[in-house]
């Protein structure tokens, strides 16, 4: 059953763009609204939108062969004709700027040595040719020679399709949106710590889906730090390298109470909020304390579709956030952010919303105050729809990892006893470190395939 489902939906995408490891580590994508069958892997299935599989952005590029190369002097471009019949164009200035010779590039660091002040941005070329070992050689007017590997050039083609493929390989920008039917991807904590394929599958799912559940961690402090070491290092904040989520007297954060927490992202009071959050259950409450998550990007997409004016308001008006107290050290934070951030292409980039730390200072003209509240209320109402909320209960040894720029998480109120106090340990990382480790793991796993 699983094989037929996998072959029908996963294999075409895998052949184009995903690694063999990922197809073994993750279940095949079901049709919308249809559950997938059991899979003997380290991650359970996820409810995905569309018929794509969860995996890495691309396989290593297949061997490329150059048929012909010529200089287009008037356009100041080099044209490469590939054996498969395709054509690529490269500006002379870019080629000279990216010469790979030891004088121009420090190979040990993959860093440019050629100074911008020494770059002739109007350079022509004297000779372009294909070498006997199928590389592209360029002789410049000053008789400097640059030699480019065919595969290196093909990956850096300036066509829209090639540029998009490269950006997807580097950043994995595609996301898989979900609702209450999500079955959270789940992995074994020890396997993630000790097996590169399991760790890669974990980080791929974290990037694409936004949340991964790990089971089997010891029910004691220190496990979020161990997991962070698998990636790089923890993000230090005013609450420390790690922090203990417990019911505390004179709490300096609403999370340190036993009351309900509405859906929120952490730390919008920082101008650069942590990208990834870990929460490890050491002890659960006697009653209540269930966790809730919603896909903030999916909610923003729904808002844009249902109420475009509200979406425009939340993506354009800057809101004040604040956080004041004493923990790792004393702090008094202020920031200004849009509730929904979009990038230059209009793609969803980040959700910034925490009702507890939204400041009473609202730096808006009078005529924009009511439209802001109307827009925010519409967004929160979408988040609170039962069909959009995933609820789960953590047990001792469970560890959840999620995208703090995308997901909003909450908690139901709980009751503890003196002999059974609810205790979670949390930690933050930044997406830069996580994506760095993902790329390294992907390279290592591909080398061993």
Automatic annotation (TrEMBL):
The enzyme's E.C. designation: 1.14.11.1
Domain spans labelled Gamma-butyrobetaine hydroxylase-like N-terminal: 72-153
Pfam families cross-referenced by the UniProt entry: GBBH-like_N, TauD
MF term (GO), any: iron ion binding
Swiss-Prot/TrEMBL cofactor(s): L-ascorbate; Fe(2+)
CDD domains referenced in this protein's UniProt entry, alphabetically: CAS_like
Pathway note: Amine and polyamine biosynthesis; carnitine biosynthesis
Top-level class of the enzyme under EC nomenclature: oxidoreductase
GO biological process, one term: carnitine biosynthetic process
InterPro entries: AlphaKG_dependent_hydroxylases, GBBH-like, GBBH-like_N, GBBH-like_N_sf, TauD-like_sf, TauD/TfdA-like
GO cellular component: mitochondrion
Domain TauD/TfdA-like, first and last residues per copy: 186-428
Catalytic activity: 4-(trimethylamino)butanoate + 2-oxoglutarate + O2 = carnitine + succinate + CO2
Domain of life: Eukaryota
Gene3D superfamilies for this protein: 3.30.2020.30, Clavaminate synthase-like
Protein keywords: Carnitine biosynthesis, Dioxygenase, Iron, Metal-binding, Oxidoreductase
Family to which this protein belongs: Belongs to the gamma-BBH/TMLD family.
Function, in words: Catalyzes the formation of L-carnitine from gamma-butyrobetaine.
Protein name: gamma-butyrobetaine dioxygenase
């Amino acid at each position: 059953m699983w094989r037929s489902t996998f072959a029908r939906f996963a294999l075409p995408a895998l052949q184009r763009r995903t690694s063999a490891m990922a197809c073994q580590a993750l279940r095949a994508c079901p049709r919308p609204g249809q559950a997938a069958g059991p899979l003997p892997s380290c991650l359970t299935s996820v409810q995905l939108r569309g018929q794509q599989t969860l995996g890495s952005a691309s396989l290593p590029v297949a061997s490329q062969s150059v048929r012909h190369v010529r200089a287009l002097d008037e356009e100041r471009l080099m044209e490469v004709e590939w054996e498969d019949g395709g054509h690529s164009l490269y500006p002379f200035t870019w080629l000279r700027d990216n010469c790979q010779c030891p004088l121009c590039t420090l190979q040990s660091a993959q860093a440019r040595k050629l100074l911008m002040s020494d770059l002739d941005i109007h350079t022509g070329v004297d000779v372009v040719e294909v070498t006997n070992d199928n590389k592209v050689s360029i002789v410049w007017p000053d008789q400097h020679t640059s030699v480019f590997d065919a595969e290196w050039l093909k990956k850096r083609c300036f066509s829209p399709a090639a540029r998009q493929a490269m950006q997807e390989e580097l950043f994995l920008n595609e996301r898989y949106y979900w609702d209450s039917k999500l079955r959270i991807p789940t992995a074994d904590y020890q396997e993630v710590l000790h097996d590169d394929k399991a760790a890669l599958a974990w980080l791929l799912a974290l990037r694409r889906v936004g949340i991964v559940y790990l089971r089997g961690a010891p029910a004691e402090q220190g496990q979020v730090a161990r997991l962070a070491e698998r990636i790089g290092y923890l993000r230090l904040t005013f609450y420390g390298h790690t922090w203990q989520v417990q019911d505390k007297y004179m709490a300096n954060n609403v999370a340190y109470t036993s009351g309900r927490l509405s859906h929120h992202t952490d730390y919008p009071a920082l101008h650069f909020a942590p990208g990834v959050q870990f929460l490890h259950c050491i002890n659960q409450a006697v009653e209540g304390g269930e966790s809730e998550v919603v896909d903030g990007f999916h909610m923003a997409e729904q808002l844009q579709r249902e109420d475009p004016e509200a979406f425009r308001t939340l993506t354009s008006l800057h809101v004040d956030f604040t956080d004041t107290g004493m923990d790792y050290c004393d702090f008094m934070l202020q920031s200004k952010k849009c509730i929904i951030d979009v990038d230059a292409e209009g793609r969803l980039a980040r959700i910034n919303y925490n009702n507890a730390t939204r400041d009473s200072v609202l730096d808006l003209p009078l005529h924009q105050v009511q439209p802001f509240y109307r827009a925010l209320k519409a967004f929160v109402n979408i988040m609170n729809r039962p069909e959009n909320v995933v609820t789960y209960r953590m047990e001792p040894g469970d560890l959840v990892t999620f995208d703090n720029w995308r997901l909003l998480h909450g908690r139901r109120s709980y009751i503890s006893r003196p002999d059974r106090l609810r205790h979670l340990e949390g930690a933050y990382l930044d997406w830069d470190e996580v994506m760095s480790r993902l790329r390294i793991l992907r390279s290592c796993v591909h080398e061993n395939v």
